[in-house]
Amino acid sequence: MRRAHQSYADAFAHHRIGITESGVEAAIATQLRDIGLATLDGLTSRDAVLAFAARIMNIVPHRDSDSDDLTTIHDTRRHAHRAGFAGFGNGELDPHTERSGTPDPPRLMLLVCGRAAAAGGESLLTDGQAVHTELFRSGRDAGLALTQPRTAFFGAGDGHATQVFTVHRSQRVSIRLRFDRLARWSPIVQPHLPQLRAAAVRHQITLSLAPGQGYLLDNERWLHARRAFTGDRLCWRAVGNPRFPMARGFAPLPEAIPPTVLSEAG
User: Fold this and answer.
1) Which CATH number covers residue 114?
2) Is the pTM of this model over 0.85?
3) By the 8 A CB rule, do 76 and 90 touch?
4) Are 197 and 183 in contact (CB under 8 A)?
5) How confident is the chain (266 residues) per 10-residue block, as mean pLDDT?
6) Is residue 260 part of a domain?
7) CA–CA distance, 19 with 186 (Å, rounded to integer)
8) Residue 261 covered by a domain
């Protein structure tokens, strides 16, 4: 994976919201609606992560979650080579959205560091709006192809036929993506995958999370990835749907508005 581009001198500080400040829920709701990402600190235990997540979202249990609906992310030393389980190893992770192989992925994802790696393990985040804009600015062919309905299939046999960019009736756009062995592609989009991957990496920002620090993102706008690591890194993850109104996806920039393509109603 290429070295991530750092858009801000300190990406964590640039997106930080203090969770002890008054009106934090409203501040988070506003920032997620505007840019889709907030960074947080002071979440120093699993109970604190769970309590905070429950204030922001209706947590959704899934295959990997524990009995309290949080997922413990660490190197199990037995899952790394299984398709769809790479997060439970210590290798790098390609840019992706969470639960891409399900019909209705959760809207929000919270990831908090419980124990930092000895080396590596940085979180790499990409704004899907930036990827969408680049692909339409550079000839439009890639952006248009990746908007065509049912040009990707994400997941195993019970996965979901979809597309990378979904244009909703509101003309807002959602992104859904994975690059691992559980991604299958139509010949329509195959030639554009290198350009898509390059854009997803080019626009990455890096978060080197310390214990108690984390990020909350809009899963219809932001991609997340990870650098390989050594040591006993541990994170807690919650996924769910917001307890406040949020419009679907992101508003495309004027130069990246495609011809009317309704990939899915919504």
Assistant:
1) 3.60.130.10
2) yes
3) no
4) no
5) 52 94 94 98 97 97 90 84 78 96 97 98 98 91 96 92 96 96 96 97 97 98 98 98 97 75 51
6) no
7) 44
8) no
